Each structure stands twice: as C-alpha cells, then as structure tokens.
Amino acid sequence: PLSFSFHQITHVVSEPVTYFNRHTEKVETEQIYGEKPMRWVYETVLGRLALWALVRRTFFSRWYGWRMRRPGSRARINPFIAKYGLDPREFAEEVGSFRSFDDFFSRRLNPAARPLAEGDEVAVFPADGRHLGFSDASAVKQIYAKGQVFDLPSLLGDTALAEKYRHGAIICSRLCPVDYHRFHFPAAGIPAEAHLLNGWLYSVNPVALRMNAGYLWENKRQRLILKTKEWGDIAILVIGATNVGSTTFTYHAGNHVSKGEEMGYFSFGGSFMVTLFEPGKIQLANDLLRESANGRELYARMGSILGRKVESA
To answer: Which of 181, 184, 233, 267 is catalytic?
Structure first.
C-alpha cells in the first residue's frame, strides 16, 4: 500500500542496518548493495511514488534480471567480489567460468565451505543470511520495527495452515545480494510440491521492512511443506523481492531429501525465507533467540545450528 506518514519516513532515514555475526561473535554493520537508490525509494515521498508505480512491479525486476544475464554483466563480478570481501576459494567453479553476473550470483559452493551440524536432533539454517527467530509466532511484538506483527494467514495464504503454526516457532532468513543464494532443507524428510502465492516484488531489506513488514506477505512467494520424522510438518516459504528475476527449485517433490540438501536458488537480487515449526517441536538456538529479542538479526551460514528437537515428556 502507498499509505505512509512524513514521520515514518524521517524516523528511519539513514539508520544503519546492524546484525550480530555468529561466526565472528561481533556486531557488524551491513554493506547494503544499492543503498542510495534503495533509501531514496523507501525513505522519500517521491521515491515511494516510484515504488508504487514502477519498482514493485514484476516487469521492473524482469528487466533488471535480463540485464544481469547479459554477457556484458560479467564485468561486474570481480569488482563485486573485491568490494564485499567474498572468498573465491569457496566457489565450486572458477570465477572466470561464469557467463554472466546472474550466473555468478546463483553460484554453487564447495561442500566443505558449508559444513552441516550433525545429528538427527539438530535442524540447520536453510540459507546464508541474517535471521530472526521466535519460539511462538503469536507472541511476536515487533519485526523490524515496534508494533509490527506477523499476519500468518496472509503470509501462508491459508487460514487453517496459519492456525496450525500460530503458536509454533518462526524463523525469518534474509538473504542479501552479497550472500550465497542457494537454499537448502533444514532437516531430512519428504517435501511436497511448491505452491505459488502471487504478489508484488518489494525489497526485503530492513530499510523497507522497517516501513512495512507486510511486504513479506504482499510479495510473490512459494509455499511448501516438508514432512519429517523428528519435527512433524515444517512449513517453508520462499519469498522473492525487487530485482529477483525468478526462484528455481531443484528438488523433486515426493522424494526423500537429506538435511542440507539443495532445495533451489534465487536469481539476482535480495530474497527471503520463512521457516515454521509446529508448536513444541524445536528449541531454537540461544543466540538466535537472544538477538531476536533485542530486535537485531543474527548472521549465520547455511548448515549451522538452527535449533534442537524438543524431547517428549
């Protein structure tokens, strides 16, 4: 929606985006790809008009994605690696082998670059990113800004499903353009086919979500259920965003998958995942709960511990 106030805009202008990095144990400030134009779009009156008329629409992201698939976009790869401190030793292919920037963006990694936390009683983060996690979705009082709560029926596109997960754990995983953009299964099980919920393509950076967390359930997204032995039914939402040309799934519905097995990948742009566990199934990691309670995201890589199974009494 276009509704907003001048106070909302001036209140969030230039606030840095910080997160706690699990792997360095430090609070870090995010380097936002395309920060100036993003802040103009979401933090100014004229920018919000451009958002409503152009930026959120599918054709805009398709056009930008087309540019990133052109051979000439390869010239962006090395400067991007240098600016954001990526480690090419993690890549499964040589940098020179990428045909376009989008090809580089959806790159695979060497398996050793993302070791999996072991044990059937352990679930793992499905993607590299900045995460928020809450033990009870119905008790969340703020997401990205005070007073914003989850609208589960809108997010899931199904009232009965929303009721099933209303008191369950919810994990938000935000992938920045600088992140590894393949996503994986958090546990072993049998996945159903993904169900498309059509929508707009707003940004999912906190610059935008501080204004309106509802972008998460207004955006185009895919929903699937992973049936598991240890965790019950895990609901997974894969959410696109501005400049994401497409989401591609690489798993086969109905076939058993292992924990950490690839589920799919995002094409160019930032993107988002939401993972929902049924009530009483998982005890989320302490650092995830601590940072989320303080309104700050936790950076963690795919394969590291998301939480542990709650043992039955």
So the answer is: 184
